[in-house]
Amino acid sequence: xxxxxxxxxxxxxxxxxxxxxxGNRAESEHDAVLIETADDYREYEYQGFSLTVRAPASAxxxxxxxxxxxxxxxxxxxxxxxxxHNTFLLTEQCDQLCLMCSQPPKKHHTDLFDQFAIAASxxxxxxxxxxxxxxxxxxxxxxxxxxxxxxxxxxxxxFHVLTNGQHFEEEDVEWLxxxxxxxxxxxxxxxxxxxxxxxxxxxxxxASERLEKSFSILAxxxxxxxxxxxxxxxxxxxxPALSDHVYFKLPFxxxxxxxxxxxxGYGRMNWDKCFLDTSTDFQPLSAALNRAxxxxxxxxxxxxxxxxxxxxFRYLAPSTIxxxxxxxxxxxxxxxxMSTCGGFFEWYIPDKGFARVGAx
Length: 360
Ligand code: SF4
Fold this sequence. Notes:
The protein is of the alpha/beta class. Helix content is about 25%, strand content about 20%. A 7-stranded mixed beta sheet has the order 1-7-6-2-3-4-5. Strands 8-9-10-11-12-13-14 form a 7-stranded parallel beta sheet, covered by helices on one side. A two-stranded antiparallel ribbon has the order 15-16.
């Protein structure tokens, strides 16, 4: 697993500080420039101060964007310049309580949007950044400000915003239209066609109806939507009906991602009652996929190890598990599919997972 924190010698700061590590020269006031390298640390010069980063000489940190917190001996690697998997955790607050949530909500919120704006402004050209939570739209005005700022300061960037879709309002249509469908993709979960089941899964009465209102607002604004459905024991038999629902009721959705469960957070707590072993029980998912494909819906399978899928559906499963939390099993040794397979989450427990895994 790649550690998203990196040890540093604390600086005498009173506010979070965002800076970018550079090997040769500064291109921005936020750049720290390398002045010395040893086996287990590097010394950077930042605005007249010295910053010590504790990392082996082999670690590639060029262009990485760090956030240092007052008094803390480690920094958050907000952006790893050589990775396509960079996500800002905007808030840990949420107004849903999803059965399988990988990032269980917390009450407290620290507003770091200004720091995230600096970080994004230092991202590599044409980067695609994830924005997630918690529920980012609980801080909608700050989020919209951030995205508007980025649209003018860094028009080359694109964003994927993961939201529960509970907070779009009629008055947002104009802003949503202006920000554009090419810059922001809204990732929104829908777990079942029936209100009661979706509400049960997300732990909030009325969530499904509220989602319908948001879909209508987003559709009118021409916003790009990626529908996300975690496949679970709870909604397994409903998947073909959900496929019909997507086709008939949500024709404006750009992409539908059907996802495997992540064994962390509430997902770990509820694993035994939620995990669906799709390596042995694929029939409802297969029916849902066939209906979607035959109707021209762009559909994908996220977080599915390739060998757990019937061969004819493997082309739908890109490698989606972020590099820093991806692993492979001993069974993967010698597998011919490894270069395109996304493997498993770092916290996947084989004894409680797929019955059929192994190099084809
Ligand atoms: S054996 Fe491992 S690498 Fe091969 S398809 Fe299965 S999970 Fe992927």
